Amino acid sequence: MTRSLQLLAPAEHNQASPAQPAAHRGRFAPSPTGPLHFGSLLAAVASYAQAKSNQAEWLVRIEDIDPPREQPGSDQLILRALEAYGFEWDGPVTYQSTLTERHESAVAELLEAGFAYPCGCSRRDLVDVPRGPLGAIYPGTCRMGCSAPETAIRLRTNDAPITFTDALQGAQTQHLESESGDFIIKRRDGLIAYHLAAVVDDHDQGIGEIVRGIDLIDSTPRHVWIQRALNMPIPAYMHIPVAVNEYGQKLSKLTGAAPISEANTGATLYRALSALRQAPPASLDGADPADIWRWVLPHWRPDVLQGLQDIPPCHYDFG
Ligand SMILES: [Zn+2]
């Protein structure tokens, strides 16, 4: 039957120290839901600068495992924009959709170990459950078994605190059982959940430090939980502040963020660096991206972003 969750007890020994130099890989992992906008450019710039200034490789992975949300052709738009902005990735671009077999085997491993179980609850079954900041808190209805013909797969949680230390945002703690409940790693429609796929691919690709927007920091304890369940080392994390619009909403496709221009890449890259508080010299405003990168890599100082969560328009919209 179910293996004891004690096996998932804290594993601080494999927590990478955020202070360690990143002699490993970094990555940028966009979903092809539309062209690159200024918000996603910041994540690309920060992850690239952090990897390259530490002599680490930087990979690009297209997270195309949620076809209903995707926009055909946006992978090409994203890659073309990255190229125009002077990013140089190592190795071939990976498409997450080609790794489904590996994701399925991770789900099978978790089922086999009793860490995961089938859940037949529909959205309607869960309308009345309590909600927390992460959404509906799954009450564990199917933990003891479920006879529904179509099921999602959930990962069991417990309420021991999950902690990790973010390089910019400091110590983070979450109690998964009471804050999210057992969460979905494979959806009822058969698609692999983002959390599972991202964790497995980061591990398999040897990503030692994950640099991404702070909007994902609440997901990270679930990622640490998956890493522990699959006996994977815990990478270092750096969650950077996200650009917000005049209403304080994160720039995204949903809030109508415009695609970044490929016409004046030097000016936009300069704005991105200003938004990230890198204080680039004014002479680089509008310069060739290659010249801008030559300045950035020896000058990259992520610590100036310590504790910052939002980047309001006054820091990037020089209109
Ligand atoms: Zn259920």
Structure description:
It is built from eight helices and 14 strands. It is an alpha/beta fold and 319 residues long. The N and C termini lie far apart (62 Å). The protein has a three-stranded parallel beta sheet. Strands 4-7-10 form a three-stranded antiparallel beta sheet. A two-stranded antiparallel ribbon has the order 5-6. The chain has a single domain, classed as HUPs (Rossmann fold).
Task: Summarize, please.
The protein is 27% helix and 16% strand. It is an alpha/beta fold. Residues 1-22 have low confidence and may be disordered.
Mean pLDDT: 92
CATH superfamily: HUPs
> Which stretches are low in confidence, meaning pLDDT under 50 for 5 or more residues running?
1-22
Measured by DSSP, the beta-strand proportion falls in 15-25%
Helical percent range?
25-40%
Counting structural domains, the number is 1
Largest sheet, spatial ordering of strands: 1-2-3
Compute the CA-based radius of gyration. 20 Å
- The second-level CATH architecture is 3-Layer(aba) Sandwich
Secondary-structure element string:
EHEHEHEEEEEEHEHEHEEHHE
- Shape, per Cα inertia axes: elongated
Q: What is the number of helical segments per DSSP (H or I, 4+ residues)? A: 8
Q: Tell me the total number of β-strands.
A: 14
Give me some keywords for this one:
single chain; 319 residues; alpha/beta; Rossmann fold; 3-stranded parallel sheet; 3-stranded antiparallel sheet; 27% helix; 16% strand; disordered N terminus; binds zinc ion
Write the layout of secondary structure elements.
Elements: E1 26-28, H1 38-52, E2 58-62, H2 74-84, E3 94-95, H3 100-112, E4 116-119, E5 131-132, E6 135-136, E7 152-155, E8 161-166, E9 170-175, H4 176-179, E10 183-186, H5 194-204, E11 209-213, H6 220-229, E12 236-240, E13 242-243, H7 265-275, H8 289-299, E14 310-311
Parallel strand pairs: 1-2, 2-3, 11-12, 13-14
Antiparallel strand pairs: 4-7, 5-6, 7-10, 8-9
Helix pairs in contact: 1-7, 3-5, 5-6
Zinc ion (ZN) binds next to loops.
